[in-house]
Amino acid sequence: MNNSRPIVLCLSGHDPSGGAGLQADIEALMAQGCHAAPTVTALTVQNSVDVSDFRVLDSEWVLAQADAVITDLSVAGIKLGMLGSVKMVDTVVQILQRLPHVPIVCDPVLRAGGGGALGKDEVGYAMRERLLPLATIATPNLPEARILAELPNGTPDECAEKLLPFCKHLLITGGHGDEHEVHNRLYSRDGSSSTFTCARLPGSYHGSGCTLASALAGRLALGEDTLTAVETALTYTWRTLRDADHPGKGQHFPRRLPLDFCA
């Protein structure tokens, strides 16, 4: 009898502070009852304050990592995070073509929480053109959605109208909005939409987008439908922010695992 947890292939960057990137993916997926298979796309120099540098790995190394996972493990979900270059976007497309019918969550990471760049805008455009059509759902925050849609001052609705021809589902998160409450808006190509509201917390958070996208990938890997998976992942992410730690001089780190997780 196979009692293995669903396996989610994570293609993203490494954050040495552990607040975001692949460590965030691993912790969030563990909390969903899934197993993360982290494939490193880039190395970064960052902490809770900001990112100062990054280096994208050679495509051959990333392909080899992914091949080692795919030839051995049964992948039930995929989470895409920081890619860092147009060439890496093309590399990831090659990997995704080997895993048809597996749900894909694309978190178009272009900026760190502190505002530092993790890829030029043309990386976002390449993701829009080549990755979003393969994804089950994309999870940009509003600044990222504006970059992807090439609408510097666009509203969520305007960005969604521009981006839905590229993807099936689009979740534009509202942490950067100015509403009293946070409005997370889910748009679907069939014209349906849903808004999920939650209390706006006072802090600033490092790795919240990674946390949400990974939790969502986990819920989809577990077999939940898109709407249920989004709602579950948003609720989980809000709780990690509510209970966040403040270990450094900058942003808070989401607490993705309870204190008694390994007790």
Automatic annotation (TrEMBL):
Keywords: Kinase, Transferase
Keyword set includes Kinase: yes
InterPro entries cross-referenced by the UniProt entry: HMP/HMP-P_kinase_dom, PM/HMP-P_kinase-1, Ribokinase-like
Any one of the GO BP annotations: thiamine biosynthetic process
Domain Pyridoxamine kinase/Phosphomethylpyrimidine kinase, chain residue ranges per copy: 15-251
Classification via Pfam families: Phos_pyr_kin
Gene Ontology cellular component annotations, sorted alphabetically: cytosol
One MF annotation (Gene Ontology) recorded for this entry: hydroxymethylpyrimidine kinase activity
Alphabetized CDD domains for the sequence: HMPP_kinase (cd01169)
Pathways per UniProt: Cofactor biosynthesis; thiamine diphosphate biosynthesis
EC numbers on record: 2.7.1.49
UniProt cross-references to SUPFAM superfamilies, sorted A to Z: Ribokinase-like
Name assigned to this protein: hydroxymethylpyrimidine kinase
